[in-house]
Amino acid sequence: MSFLPKTPPSEQFKLSPIKAMELAASRVPNVVSLAQGIPSFRTPRRVIRFAQEKIAAGLCDKYSLTTGLTELREEIALSLEADGLSYDPEREILVTAGSIEGITATLLAFTSPGDEVLLPSPSYTSYLGAVSIAGCVPKYVELDEDNNFDFQVEKIEQGITKKTKLLLYCSPNNPTGTLFSREKTEQLVQICERHNLTILIDEVYKDFYYVDEPHFSATQIPEARERIIRACSFSKAYAMTGWRVGFVHADKQRISRIVKFHDAMVTCAPVPSQYAAIGALRFGADFLEEFRTEFKKRRNYCITRLDELSQVMDYQVPKATYFVFPRIKDIVKYSEDSHRLAYDILDKVGVATVPGVAFGPSGESHLRINFGREMEDLEKGFDRLEGYFFKVHPRQRQHKTIPVKNPQEPTSKQPGHTMVGRGARLLLAHASRHYLKRNSALVIGITGIKGKTTIKRTLIELLGSVNKTRGTLLSYNTEVGLPLSILCLKNPKTVKAKLLFPLHLAKQAILGREEADILIFEYGIRSRNDAETLLNIAVPDWLIVSGVEADPHLDYPAITEGIDHISACLPPERLLWIGDDPFVSTMAAARQAPHVIHDSQLSDGRLSTTTTYACTRETVGANAARALITAVTMAELLNTPADTIKHFLQA
């Protein structure tokens, strides 16, 4: 027995980083908040009138049943039925005071203090508070960022211990906008069945899809019905965040356990809000479609603005929700301290975002941006972000809003700053050359300033359907990042990882076997010296020159000289380049190359190369369109079957 004093719960518990940012932003004059997930729309008037009528009729003066209004539970059951789900409104549906209350009650019902709760990372930050209330230990499992943050099911299973009792995840995912694949979801359910885990799914964003595919929920797997609890909300779909009403549905035995904690916490959901929820289900379908259309328009706008920031940010196109989760590249000050970066942005230019680390360990080096706000706020916010990152119009403030954790100012750094020693760099280069010499694989290089990572991911998806293909880790593309990608090693961060790194490096260089037939690497070139350094690590068999025109403050003569140098090392017929970029078109090596990409090749649902293809694949932003044309051209040059390309363009 321990007689040491325990830390009071109030000192263990922290305010949500999202709410902390909003509080800080509220003290900044003329702030633009792209932080908290509040939609810009008002609750539909028809819904408000319906609730007002019930209030006027005296139907909202008393508690409802703890489980919620019978009328509302019946409406919910009908809406679930429309999705192919059958739940008894009497015993299998519980109306809650927002989804997070239902999630908290569920955790209390199915865990004990000290139990582990598995959380994908990145994942909604407020889950931590609910897990803490239940006295449980959060255990994060990293999502696959290069695969649009999909599940890594093998890592999830590896993370399960005897103490693991529950898996909690958000689908579609907040903050990444990910639609988890049906295949991975089914595998996940099988893992939970093998280990007897409860599955708690938060599906508050299920109504905001921007692609033409139906929402797939684990609740649609019949054999998993008794294992799954699903939390839903009216807050997002019907612009009702202030009404605080949602619901959970599950097998009757599970609901009977959850309701006891729900009753202890709130007695019942607010009755006026329950009537508003009835109104939303009866009259809200048209408004929901209107919201979805407008959010998609705002998402597309954000992607075009992020394309303009591609020198400093990399992103995955969100297929759902109203969030985008760009990763901050290593050249940015505070890139590895997203908390400090977010508050520095707030302080310098008056834009509130959410630090990525709030969503779990792998959220670090990201920011969450809410595109559910008014278009005017998005325009103003991105104008200010450009000013911050490109130092166009830095805004000076008299007071600081940043809660500084470390008073020392970090200096600007280059990628791979944790391994900057010259000896380490030479060792990495030698190991990479040795690895590539031992393993025969076709190397495709991508260089330029804009869109390298988008091209890489598009190429991997297309070429990977017929060849074993892998690419650069995230956007590792420097003297340190390129060899790490070649060797499939991550930049060591901790003392232990750094001590073990030489052993891992030697093992991979001497014994590592390459399973891929095609390797696709990014080459980050800002000068001729960069080009010579990276060529000393790996000479590509093919080279794609993406867009160069980006930040007007870049040293374009130095960049073009470097790219021209690496291009000249390959035969002209092994080069692909963007013909519409004014800087690329000035390079001597590029002008000799026969393979030129033009934006006009993709138009009106047709993509034209040596062949004209029908194209229904969604492309958002100029970078995505160029990546698609480039990938198809490269696939043709590598003799990829035409049917494979056609199928890819219909995805």
From TrEMBL:
**Entry keyword annotation includes Transferase:** yes
The Gene Ontology biological process annotation of the record reads: amino acid metabolic process
Q: Which Pfam families match?
A: Aminotran_1_2
InterPro entries, per the entry: Aminotransferase_I/II_large (IPR004839), AspAT/PAT-like (IPR050596), Mur-like_cat_sf (IPR036565), NHTrfase_class1_PyrdxlP-BS (IPR004838), PyrdxlP-dep_Trfase (IPR015424), PyrdxlP-dep_Trfase_major (IPR015421), PyrdxlP-dep_Trfase_small (IPR015422)
The organism of origin for this protein: Desulforhopalus singaporensis
Q: What region holds the Aminotransferase class I/classII large domain?
A: 30-385
Cofactor(s) this protein cannot do without: pyridoxal 5'-phosphate
Ordered alphabetically, the record's keywords are: Aminotransferase, Pyridoxal phosphate, Transferase
List the PROSITE patterns. Answer: AA_TRANSFER_CLASS_1 (PS00105)
Designated name of the protein: Aminotransferase
Identify the EC number(s).
2.6.1.-
Q: Which family does it belong to?
A: Belongs to the class-I pyridoxal-phosphate-dependent aminotransferase family.
Q: GO molecular function, one example? A: transaminase activity
